[in-house]
Write a structure and sequence with these properties.
By secondary structure, the chain is α/β, with parallel strands linked by helices. It folds into 2 domains: about 140 residues, Alpha-Beta Complex (Aspartate Aminotransferase, domain 1), CATH 3.90.1150.10; about 240 residues, 3-Layer(aba) Sandwich (Aspartate Aminotransferase, domain 2). Helices cover about 40% and strands about 15% of the residues. Strands 2-10-9-8-5-3-4 form a 7-stranded mixed sheet, sandwiched between helices. A 5-stranded mixed sheet has the order 1-13-14-12-11, with helices on one face. It has a two-stranded antiparallel ribbon with strand order 6-7. Bound molecules: pyridoxal-5'-phosphate. Pyridoxal-5'-phosphate (PLP) binds next to helix 4.
């Protein structure tokens, strides 16, 4: 093979993610920061980026043990647990798999709900692993109905259902399921099923309490409310789930909790840990601690209320159809059949250098999603909604321009 004449790329020629060089077709925007308003990955605060940029250290030395023990301790309140939390080098999908393979056996029955795209993917995974999934159909506009949980479990007199799988915040629809009511339904049916909850786009943004709500495995990851880049997956584990793990026979190796929990006791990992992301996680946890979780949740609630005020003010529809289930992390906006939501997103990217979430699966082209979670303040939201309003107008969608005013009123209040 001939050696290449191409000069190696020096760092200065690599597009900077905070500028527009690699984004948009019209090339009209040349300065300022990109607005990353998808519902994850979210914007990473500079403090966290700087923490990640520290030198990587020996993962078998005492400095690493100090870091890991600190992070494993500080992460617990974010899950609302005093029990163990395993932190994998993985995406959220890996943490989904870990929750299933550590607690279940081939042929086990599980109850799951079609709340949207991610609930459907988790169902697919469970089936692929050899579980039998009772998948309750849904319209992608509602969360899990606790009455249906109660009904299905009451009908399962043989206690064949080993676990109930719930996506707390369905990122594809902006609908948040009511986990305490689901727990109460399981208890009312006096059913022993485990409760497995995906908090991938709610943790650190929407109130969540693993212990108080009696959740057995809480699944999460780094790139949403925790304001980190992708790369960390989490399982918070109840005592009941730990006991179930003793008898769980689904094959596992990388995801096995047992060697993790043993090594974590001393601040170590059973394999090479994601050291630099753990630096970032420590910084993120300090940021959340200093704001205080109740204030973090209240901030997200306010921004979600302002976003809904804008959408309703524009005369458009929010996809979530139940007042009790509006997501505080993102809002999915439903367009009528004549208008293509992807075209609106493209115009906004080209003209205003802002990325919005696409409609996924069944709602592809019908919705766009505004992420308002993570490192986000009033003016980030005001800028985001201004960009959306201008994009809608440029796309020729008839809207009431007072929408933005309605949002600003909520922010000012
Ligand atoms: C609710 C939910 N579950 C699971 C996933 C999958 O996570 P990942 O893409 O990190 O594997 C996502 C991703 O956005 C999600 O939003």
């Amino acid at each position: 093979m001939q050696p290449s004449n191409k000069k190696p790329q020096d760092a200065s020629s690599i597009p900077d993610a905070t500028t527009t060089e690699n984004r948009g077709e019209a090339g009209l925007v040349t300065a300022g920061r990109h607005f990353l308003q998808i519902p994850g990955p979210t914007n990473v605060p500079d403090r966290i980026l700087r923490a990640i940029a520290q030198p990587t250290i020996d993962h078998r030395g005492p400095a690493f043990a100090e870091l890991a023990l600190d992070v494993l301790h500080r992460v617990k309140p974010v899950f609302g647990t005093s029990g163990p939390v395993v932190i994998y080098p993985s995406s959220g999908t890996g943490a989904w798999e870990a929750a299933l393979v550590n607690t279940l056996s081939p042929g086990d029955h599980v109850l799951a709900f079609e709340t949207g795209h991610f609930a459907t993917l988790w169902r697919d995974m469970a089936e692929g692993l050899g579980l039998v999934v009772d998948f309750v159909p849904g319209d992608w506009r509602h969360g899990v109905d606790p009455a249906v949980v109660a009904e299905r479990l009451a009908a399962d007199t043989q206690h064949r259902i080993a676990a109930v799988m719930v996506v707390h915040n369905e990122t594809s629809t902006g609908v948040t399921s009511r986990v305490p009511e689901i727990r109460a339904a399981i208890d009312r049916a006096e059913h022993p099923a485990l409760l497995l909850v995906d908090t991938i786009s709610s943790l650190g943004s929407i109130d969540y309490r693993h212990d108080e709500w009696g959740v057995d495995v809480t699944v999460s990851c780094s790139q949403k409310g925790l304001m980190l880049p992708p790369g960390l997956g989490f399982n918070a584990i109840s005592e009941k789930a730990l006991a179930a793990a003793e008898g769980a026979r689904l094959p596992k190796s990388y995801w096995n909790w047992a060697p993790f929990l043993e090594a974590n006791e001393r601040g170590y990992y059973p394999y090479t840990p994601p050291t630099n992301l753990l630096y970032g996680l420590r910084e993120a946890l300090v940021l959340l601690e200093s704001e205080g979780l109740p204030a973090v949740f209240a901030r997200h609630d306010r921004h979600a209320a302002a976003t809904r005020a804008a959408v309703q003010g524009w005369g458009l529809e929010v996809l979530c159809a139940d007042e009790r289930e509006h997501s505080s992390a993102l809002t999915a906006v439903l367009l009528d059949e004549e208008h293509d939501a992807n075209k609106v997103r493209q115009i906004i990217l080209d003209r205003f250098d802002m990325s919005l979430g696409a409609g996924l699966g069944k709602v592809s082209g019908r919705v766009f999603r505004i992420g308002h979670l993570g490192d986000f303040n009033d003016l980030t939201l005001a800028g985001t909604l201004s960009g959306v309003q201008m994009g809608l107008e440029l796309a020729g969608i008839p809207i009431d321009p007072d929408g933005i005013r309605a949002a600003l009123e909520v922010l000012r209040a």
